Amino acid sequence: MERRDNTALQDTHFDLLIIGGGITGAGAARDAARRGLSVLVVDQGDVASGTSSRSSKLVHGGLRYLEQGEVALVFEAVAERRVLQTIAPHLVQPMPFLFPIYDDYRMGLFTINIGMWIYDALSLFRSPKIHKKLSQKKVAIVEPGLLSEGLQGAPLYYDCATDDARLTLETILDAECSGAQIRTHTRVTKLLRKDGRVSGAKLEDQLTGEAAEVSASVVINATGPWTDWTRRLSGEEVRPSLRPTKGIHIVVNASRFSVNHAVVCLHPDDGRVLFAVPWGEQTYVGTTDTDFEGDPNEVCADHSDVKYIIEATNTFFPDAGLSLDDVVSTWAGVRPLISEDGAEDESSVSREHEIYLSDDGMITIAGGKLTTYRRMGAEVVRKAVAVLKELELLPDTLRSSDTQKNPLPGAVSWPASGGLDTLVQQVVEIGEGQIDERTAKLLSDTYGTRSLHIAEQVSAAHALGEPLIEGRPEIAGQVEFAVNSELARTVSDVMIRRTQLFYRDADQGLGAVDKVAAQMAGMLNWTPEQTQKNVSEYRAEVERSRCWRTG
Ligand code: FAD
């Protein structure tokens, strides 16, 4: 397979320049490219290196938004949940949720159950499954570790779990297949203006130092928590439009603490919602929601964040006895929430998105959720199309939006029956003895039908079936695929967002980093200095994610 050259731009003028390769920019790029617009997406880091790889990884209506009266948001989100299950069945999978209700909660089981009926009704009763009300006794059977004292019972309902970074990546890859150009590790350092309008941007490649200028008929700012930073790049004073909040998660091995469902808990100190989510051989728990000021690049979990989550876990699962030593890894993200005058409590700030056209012609999209990204993308592109029309620059070939019908790359040729199980068997067969069942499952879960391509590569070159870490399922073939077919340019891209070794391995993949760097160096013609720099940068990322240990 030909590797695409990330550093060369084939054009210098585009209908749309999208700044930000998070889920919001990805959704816009996919919609626009499929409609026939020429699109360039740039991100200062990797695809999804911002908030879009640091979420709770749920595609959900958001039960708690119902309580905040955001019925339209919930309705839209549950409709999108269904669309995403159809276009990305490998990445958006039904997950059972248990919401235990205790005597000291503000709302009892009866009231919450009415809420659950509304939740099911808003999905037009097309949830993965309709909810059930479980008695205290039943809860003790299905989730035996849960605190039983004061427990009234629990609704069992269904939402979906996803891999946020991969959902973003596959959305971007689909945009690329439809003609969009993607430049990762490329920062917009200045917005260019012509006749009072933002007309393009100065770009700087963060890995090579190369600079370039591009022009675009419309520029979309989809930079999430960096939204206001980006608005200022045109040289104008801007009032802050965001109220960013930080959220962290901790990862522990399922052998230390496991749950059979995603369990929804209200923190005993402040009533904030936390999820304990089964994650293959791990479990993750989060999240916090605290105001965040500062550079989103620097966000990390601190000691009090981790303690806050461990305390809640040990309260609701009294036998878990989790301690700081059990934490394998953490992640922290910044929510790009729209600032609302008068919202006192961080958790009550709206998760709705906003799209606005500035006087200088730049379109900004901010806020929203991972779950609703596809609709947000379609909406911002409609706005861009309106501007192009006004400027009389609309291409004649413009098509209508079709993102709700077409599969993401890993769902193309999805098995007609058996879904993931069928895929796992096919991967094992094609791997001809080089891919065991555990690796085949990992590949199928991660890449969907694209796992068959990796299996073919392994069967052609057996070294690609070698594990990256002895005893773990990740293989060298994934590194090759990441570089050749998934826009990975650095060791951190591969370790954090392509293979997840950063989160899942007991030593966060440090035992594999030299091997991965050597493999990438061979493919990307790195000098020894470049290879060493990549290794050091990855080690620094691991250190930053562990800063809570010393704080
Ligand atoms: P980002 O993903 O941050 O993307 C912005 C991109 O812009 C970044 O990649 C950045 O590198 C790039 N950028 C910035 N400046 C520049 C520049 N000058 N030049 C080039 N590129 C630039 N939503 C859900 O639906 N379900 C959930 O379970 C969920 N859980 C969440 C939990 C937490 C803790 C958090 C923080 C959020 C959660 N969300 C959830 C919300 C969701 O994750 C975010 O709304 C979404 O990821 C935001 O995506 P984005 O593309 O707008 O921003």
Q: What is the CA–CA distance across the termini?
A: 46 Å
Task: Tell me how many strands there are.
Answer: 19
- Uncertain runs with pLDDT below 50, 5 residues or more? none
Which cofactors or ions or other ligands sit in this model? flavin-adenine dinucleotide
Helix amount: 25-40%
SS strand fraction: 15-25%
Write down the Rg.
23 Å
Question: Total number of helical segments?
Answer: 17
Largest sheet: 11 strands, mixed
Task: Report what the structure shows.
- By secondary structure, this protein is of the alpha+beta class.
- 35% of the residues lie in helices and 21% in strands.
- It has helices spanning 23-34, 63-67, 71-87, 109-122, 136-142, 164-177, 227-232, 303-316, 373-390, 419-430, 437-447, 451-460, 476-485, 491-498, 501-504, 513-524, 528-545, and strands spanning 13-19, 39-42, 58-59, 93-98, 101-102, 132-135, 151-161, 181-183, 186-194, 197-205, 211-221, 245-253, 262-266, 273-279, 282-286, 290-291, 327-335, 353-357, 363-367.
- Strands 3, 4, 5, 6, 7, 12, 13, 14, 15, 16 and 17 form an 11-stranded mixed sheet that branches. Strands 1, 2, 8, 9, 10, 11, 18 and 19 form an 8-stranded mixed sheet that branches.
- Helix 10 packs across helix 11 and helix 10 (419-430) runs parallel beside helix 12 (451-460).
- The model has no long low-confidence stretch (mean pLDDT 93).
- Bound molecules: flavin-adenine dinucleotide.
- Flavin-adenine dinucleotide binds at residues 19-25, 42-45, 49-52, 54-58, 187-188, 222-226, 230, 247, 287, 333-336, 368-371.
